[in-house]
Amino acid sequence: MALDQQRDEMISVLKDRGITDHAVLQAMHDVPREDFVLPSFRDDAYADSALPLTHKQTISQPLIVALMTQIMELQPSDRVLEIGTGSGYAAAVLGQLAKEVITVERIGDLAITAAETIRKLGKRNVHMRFGDGLKGWPDDGPYDAIAVAAGGDRVPNALFDQLAIGGRLVIPLGPRQDSQKLIRIRKIGEDRYVEDDFGGVRFVPLLPETD
Ligand code: SAH
């Protein structure tokens, strides 16, 4: 099947599985996932599954990218922080909906490849940063929304500080990889938060900077 047919197929799977926000479906349609996967996986780019990247990392499953994006409730004026760029795919999707995306990756090779893919696609509102996302990226904050694309047992403190009031933070939380839940935390005042649970997920671990 041709890639654009497979892309349409993916969109109908996303609809069937609870993605109802039209802007999110449009963004998932418009970002070419085949450009973000390793060349040997191009033909699988629109299967609804995570795929391997280098350095034992993965590009997230389309449904999870769409769900995270949907529950972030993005507005066109929003500034977004993503921790865990990986391939850059989710950052590009977020960039379709928000004003600006800052995305942080701790593995230099992945950061370089993702920056190159994003540059080639002409996504000028997506900005790559290399470093430890456990610290967030204070220089560009506060953010209207934060997505953490790797799992941990708690939210790094710095991220609470860098979230604007009214902002939404989405993160897979759980003591082990097989017991993570996708959690959204909405900041409703200084030190006041509301939490919602969006069910079981499986992400690679959030780790400190290498070196
Ligand atoms: N959003 C990505 C998938 C992310 S996989 C995509 O669309 O392809 C999780 C990524 O988080 C990996 O690339 C991993 O290296 C990165 N990561 C893990 N801990 C991190 C940290 N402390 N700071 C920044 N990136 C981190």
Automatic annotation (TrEMBL):
The active site is at S60. InterPro entries: PCMT, SAM-dependent_MTases_sf. Belongs to the methyltransferase superfamily. L-isoaspartyl/D-aspartyl protein methyltransferase family. GO terms for biological process: methylation; protein repair. One of its GO terms (cellular component) is cytoplasm. It comes from the Bacteria. It is found in: Cytoplasm. HAMAP family: PIMT. Its EC number is 2.1.1.77. Pfam families: PCMT. SUPFAM superfamilies: S-adenosyl-L-methionine-dependent methyltransferases (SSF53335). Keywords: Cytoplasm, Methyltransferase, S-adenosyl-L-methionine, Transferase. Catalyzes the methyl esterification of L-isoaspartyl residues in peptides and proteins that result from spontaneous decomposition of normal L-aspartyl and L-asparaginyl residues. It plays a role in the repair and/or degradation of damaged proteins. The gene is pcm_1. Its main location: cytoplasm. This is Protein-L-isoaspartate O-methyltransferase. GO terms for molecular function: protein-L-isoaspartate (D-aspartate) O-methyltransferase activity. It catalyses: [protein]-L-isoaspartate + S-adenosyl-L-methionine = [protein]-L-isoaspartate alpha-methyl ester + S-adenosyl-L-homocysteine. Gene3D superfamilies: Vaccinia Virus protein VP39. Signal peptide: none annotated.
